[in-house]
């Protein structure tokens, strides 16, 4: 097969315009570094938007995918698959007694959690109009399916797709009184990210998560956690909510779980696992042998290389250095987040700063507001964290100088 156009021409001619024009063509990756088609090297602190948890081309992940591809790629959930069974056991050992559903993305995981809330509402309701309200939070993000968008109170996400599904009242993060004011007899669940990723790296405090757990228990509501971005070790614990010492009723996972290979998963606690019955939900590709082999390699590597403790240890100094930059430069208002899920909040649109960081060899990704996210892999070398500080410092110094000149 012969191709007549280069990559940039192909994108311009044939791809839908739902993404902005990419500024780089990435052709190679190794751990925390990537290279473009011009041979330029970058520190990749985007990591596929928090998916390449082991960095690029980790030998254990490459081997697991290669070995599985040589045995079995896909057969569907009509049959049992050993990698899926092993992954179920591994995740239950992390989350607690319950059951797993596998899908292909974070949006599908969110959709599954919303369907769980509907099944729960239908079961407990005695009327012809079952309860189905799910309380969500300002700046939340739960994917781009209709269920996910409806649970995402962001105009930029919903614009052009109205009407949304109803019954997703919006509370304020870290304000338990706002939750209490919205809850009524039609409420069935509370749906929250322990750390809001796309919405701007807003952290739900441990006390707030504890209050949500207590409130759900008292009112007979499901506590649904979206750990799509914050899970799989990114914050220094396997799940971000572990710092609060709570047990949710269900957890959505994706992104870093497959180390870059597409997979989503939903864990449902033992008390509610039976709400899903044969035929109530499904996925053709979900939990296929390749995805499960990849996820198992990620989990095994996290344990073998003690990556959770590594994230805790290395992120402490790195975040201190980022906070020092916030004190040094007026344009950098605040550093938010935990572990290797960090947001830099700027006083104005940071696009120019992001472009300068890229030109100096550091890739970042935008989030809600004026946030630049830093999402290094769990395996990032300490020297690369120091290098990122040097690059950010140089870029902010340059912008401070330009601001003074003008």
Description:
- The protein is of the alpha/beta class.
- It has a domain at 60-304: Type I PLP-dependent aspartate aminotransferase-like (Major domain) (Aspartate Aminotransferase, domain 2), CATH 3.40.640.10.
- The protein is 39% helix and 18% strand.
- The protein is built from 13 helices and 17 strands.
- It has helices at residues 7-14, 47-50, 59-69, 82-95, 106-124, 146-150, 155-158, 176-182, 206-219, 289-304, 307-328, 351-359, 382-405, and strands at 26-30, 33-36, 41-44, 98-103, 133-137, 170-171, 187-192, 195-196, 202-203, 222-226, 250-253, 264-269, 332-338, 341-346, 362-363, 365-367, 371-374.
- It has a seven-stranded mixed sheet, sandwiched between helices. Strands 1-2-3-15 form a four-stranded mixed sheet.
- A hairpin with a 2-residue loop joins strand 13 and strand 14 (341-346).
- Helix 3 packs antiparallel against helix 10, helix 4 crosses helix 10 and helix 11 runs parallel beside helix 13 (382-405).
- It is globular and about 70 Å long.
- The mean pLDDT is 96.
């Amino acid at each position: 097969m012969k191709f007549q156009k280069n990559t940039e021409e192909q994108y311009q001619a044939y791809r839908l315009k739902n993404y902005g024009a990419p500024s780089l063509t990435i052709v190679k990756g190794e751990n925390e570094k990537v290279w473009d088609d011009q041979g330029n090297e970058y520190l990749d602190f985007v990591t596929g938007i928090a998916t390449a948890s082991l960095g690029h081309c980790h030998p254990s992940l490459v081997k697991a995918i290669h070995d599985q591809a040589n045995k079995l790629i896909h057969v569907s959930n009509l049959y049992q698959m050993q990698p899926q069974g092993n992954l179920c056991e591994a995740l239950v050992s992390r989350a607690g007694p319950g059951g797993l559903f596998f899908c292909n993305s974070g949006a599908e995981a969110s959709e599954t959690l919303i369907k769980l809330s509907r099944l729960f509402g239908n079961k407990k309701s005695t009327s012809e109009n079952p309860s189905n309200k799910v309380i969500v939070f300002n700046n939340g993000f739960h994917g781009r399916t209709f269920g996910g968008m409806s649970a995402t109170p962001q105009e930029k996400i919903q614009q052009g797709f109205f009407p949304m599904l109803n019954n997703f009242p919006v509370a304020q993060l870290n304000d338990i009184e706002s939750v209490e004011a919205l809850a009524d007899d039609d409420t069935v669940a509370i749906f929250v990210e322990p750390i809001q990723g796309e919405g701007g790296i807003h952290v739900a405090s441990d006390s707030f998560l504890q209050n949500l757990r207590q409130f759900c228990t008292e009112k007979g509501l499901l506590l649904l956690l979206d750990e799509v971005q914050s899970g799989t070790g990114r914050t220094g614990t396997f799940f971000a909510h572990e710092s609060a010492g709570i047990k949710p009723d269900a957890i959505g996972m994706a992104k870093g779980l497959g180390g870059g290979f597409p997979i989503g998963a939903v864990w449902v606690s033992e008390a509610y696992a039976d709400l899903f019955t044969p035929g109530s939900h499904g996925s053709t590709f979900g939990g296929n042998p390749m995805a499960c082999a990849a996820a198992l390699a990620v989990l095994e590597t996290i344990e073998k290389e003690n990556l959770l403790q590594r994230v805790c240890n290395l992120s402490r100094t790195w975040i201190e250095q980022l906070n020092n930059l916030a004190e040094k430069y007026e344009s950098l208002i605040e550093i938010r987040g935990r572990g290797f899920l960090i947001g830099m909040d700027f006083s104005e649109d940071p696009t120019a700063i992001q472009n300068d960081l890229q030109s100096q060899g550091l890739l970042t990704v935008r989030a809600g507001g004026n946030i630049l996210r830093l999402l290094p892999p769990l395996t990032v070398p300490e020297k690369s964290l120091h290098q990122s500080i040097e690059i950010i410092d140089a870029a902010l110094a340059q912008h401070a100088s330009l601001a003074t000149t003008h």
